[in-house]
Amino acid sequence: MSRRASPFEKWEGLGNDFILVEGLPLNAERVRRLCDRRLGIGGDGVLLLDRSPARMEVWNADGSRPEMCGNGLRCAAAWLVAQGLAVPPEGLRVATDAGEKRCEVVVVEPDLYEVTVDMGCARLTEPLSVRLDDREHHFTSVDMGNPHAVTFESHPEDAIDTIAPRISMAPPAGVNVELCRMIGPRRIEVLVWERGVGRTLACGTGACAVAAAACEAGLTPYEAPIEVVLPGGALTITVASGTRAITMRGPARRVFTGQVVST
Ligand SMILES: N[C@@H](CCC[C@H](N)C(=O)O)C(=O)O
């Protein structure tokens, strides 16, 4: 039996880590094996990338296919630049299942990049209320291409591991859950439970959804940079008033390279 080796790179954005591959045939089972932290490479997801035209396809660690990934997109854009792709003056355009996104990539040091992304417009959808263990939980639903349930209600300390996984199963397709606390006029602390992954150190689309929900609730102003502080670090998010068009700025780092070996 012949063994084929395909190159991969491992990248992370605030500890949200991804296996980046090009031209590797994927299915749910293969993605689960690649993302397994003991039996595979380990990661919160796999990003299948094309250079020309630039495109990112996202897979969650459980083998499901979300529409969009903010931290992943910063990694994908930085990867394209690291491959030597010529970047037009107006920035890089990367196609995703949630539409084309414009990215600006700055090299900070070898293997570390700062990426600013036009994430498109946050869309507020039907609020979500869930009754669990005799308590009603209220969430602002925000569509960033993928679905988010955001709350500023106070919760017990373990809620991210106890309540959030149950909320994340909300029909029809599940949601990413963000438990938030204002810690300054333009600073928000957030814990994330990601659909198809579990608790992660950061979520880019989640940070955008949180900022949009906070502006909508009058907790922080539109048009000014908001610092969203996640366990893995902070992202800077700006929400335009009216359109709710969002920009996200944060790091992307190449961690290692290797080969996927398969028979
Ligand atoms: N980590 C991501 C979001 C990845 C997709 C998400 N788990 C979903 O199922 O929608 C981000 O940085 O945005």
UniProtKB/TrEMBL annotation:
In short, the EC number is: 5.1.1.7
Q: Where in the cell is it found?
A: Cytoplasm
Q: Which residues of the sequence carry a binding annotation for substrate?
A: 16, 60, 70-71, 146, 176, 194-195, 204-205
Tell me the GO BP annotations in alphabetical order: lysine biosynthetic process via diaminopimelate
- Which pathway, metabolic or otherwise, does it act in? Amino-acid biosynthesis; L-lysine biosynthesis via DAP pathway; DL-2,6-diaminopimelate from LL-2,6-diaminopimelate: step 1/1
Please write the reaction equations for the catalytic activity of this protein: (2S,6S)-2,6-diaminopimelate = meso-2,6-diaminopimelate
Assembly description:
Homodimer.
What name does the UniProt record give this protein?
Diaminopimelate epimerase
Source organism? Chondromyces crocatus
